[in-house]
Amino acid sequence: MPVNILGGALLLILSLPALADGTLDWSALGWSPDGSLSQSYPDLAAPVVTIDATVSGNTPAMASNTPLVSGANLVIAADHMLVGQSLDIELVFSIPLVDLQLNIYDIDRGTTMTWIDELTITATDLDGNAAFPVIAPGSHYSVTGTNDNVVTGLDTTDFTAVTPVSFPQAIRSVQIRYGNNSAAMANPAYQVIAIGDLDWRNEADLSLVKDDSQVFYTPGGNATYTLTVENAGPNAANGAVVSDTLPAGTRIDGNWTCLASGGASCISGSPPGTATSGTGNINQSVDIPRNGRVVFTIPITFSSNPADY
């Protein structure tokens, strides 16, 4: 007769290697040579991220052989001829970064409006849509714009004045447009800002669902479990280990199988789409990128002796 098997569900364990928080440390990594318009920083943090930095726009106005690293910051100096001219500093990330934070220093203005630093800061999210920063209030600058992403200098020169900028969402790139507010003099004077280190978190949001579509089981009968692991991101879960131990009174009826989709792999380190199978309890290391999935199918036979449970 059918019985309800106490503890009949699989014992599931899902573990993930530690994801290290990341930093782009300007003083350690530098910008070489001084004055170059692009730079690439590979192999940062775990999972590994590459950050590509470029400067474009009115680059002939860049001064003092910048960009260059001075102290702990990336320094950008400009001597624009017209108020409407600007520089674009773009940072592109090979994988999404979560909770990106950086400080920008020396957003100020000349005593007689000879220049007025103004930065417009935007980003792109996981899906390529526009995203905007959270900019902490400060006494030496104002924050305006429809998306509160335009920072304008209010005080006279103070290199130590800091503007904290953060992106709580996962983002793929950041663009900083650096120029003058329209109230600056027609031919703005020499101006400087400095960008501090970038800090971020790495995380993967894994979910695990088991399903056998049954409530009661017949001793001596069979059932099939499916075990689905998905990653909502934003980062890949490479080397995640799925462990699965059957309860007393059950055994594998043949081989379990694993199928991968969405760029995932049932064998960590193998190409996307790699499938596998095995016998006995599952202890499988897998790779699951954002929106990827692995599905284990486990055929089960139940002991004919209810006392085994």
What do you see in this structure?
The protein has 309 residues and is an all-beta fold. The protein has 2 domains: 11-17 and 204-308, Immunoglobulin-like (Sandwich); 22-201, Jelly Rolls. The protein has one helix at residues 26-29, and strands spanning 11-15, 22-24, 38-44, 49-57, 68-70, 73-78, 87-105, 117-125, 130-131, 134-135, 141-144, 150-153, 162-167, 171-180, 191-195, 198-201, 204-211, 222-234, 237-245, 250-252, 256-261, 276-278, 282-288, 293-302. The strands form 3 sheets. It has a 15-stranded antiparallel sheet that branches. Strands 17, 18, 20, 21, 22 and 24 form a 6-stranded antiparallel sheet that branches. A 3-stranded antiparallel sheet has the order 1-19-23, with no helix packed on it. Strand 5 and strand 6 (73-78) form a beta hairpin. The radius of gyration is 28 Å and the shape is elongated.
Q: Count all strands and give the number.
A: 24
What is the CATH-assigned architecture of the largest domain?
A: Sandwich
Question: What would you report as the Rg, rounded to the nearest angstrom?
Answer: 28 Å
Look up the CATH topology of the largest domain: Jelly Rolls
- Contiguous helical run count: 1
Q: Proportion of β residues?
A: over 45%
Distance between the termini: 14 Å
- The string of secondary-structure elements, in order, is EEHEEEEEEEEEEEEEEEEEEEEEE
The helicity comes to: under 10%
Low-pLDDT regions: 1-10
Structural class: mainly beta
Largest sheet: 15 strands, antiparallel
Question: How many separate domains make up the residues?
Answer: 2
Shape: elongated
| Overall pLDDT score | 88
Can you tell me the CATH class of the largest domain? Mainly Beta
